[in-house]
Write a structure and sequence with these properties.
By secondary structure, the protein is mainly β. It has one helix and five strands; from the N terminus they run βββαββ. The chain is globular.
C-alpha cells in the first residue's frame, strides 16, 4: 500500500503552540472557519523558516484525521 492521499487547504495562523505547532484557521469552500492544529514540515524546520500569527500558509490534511495537518508552504504577504 502506498502513501495516503493528502488534501491541500489554505489557512491563516491564529496562535503559535509549543513544539513547532500552530492553531490554523482554514480558508476554502467547505473548510471555512474551521480551526485545526498543524505542525511544520521537516523541510521548513531544516531551513529555519519562521511563521508568525497572521501568516497565510498551505496545509496538507490527512484523509483519515482532518483535524491535524502539516504546514508545507508560507505565502509571501
Amino acid at each position: 500500500m502506498g502513501k495516503e492521499e493528502k488534501i491541500e487547504v489554505e489557512g491563516v495562523i491564529v496562535e503559535p503552540l509549543p513544539g513547532a505547532k500552530f492553531k490554523v484557521e482554514l480558508k476554502g469552500d467547505s473548510w471555512e472557519g474551521k480551526e485545526i492544529t498543524a505542525h511544520l514540515s521537516g523541510k521548513m524546520q531544516m531551513n529555519y523558516i519562521r511563521i508568525l500569527p497572521g501568516d497565510k500558509v498551505t496545509i496538507k490534511l490527512s484523509i483519515y484525521d482532518p483535524s491535524k495537518g502539516i504546514i508545507t508552504y508560507r505565502h509571501k504577504n
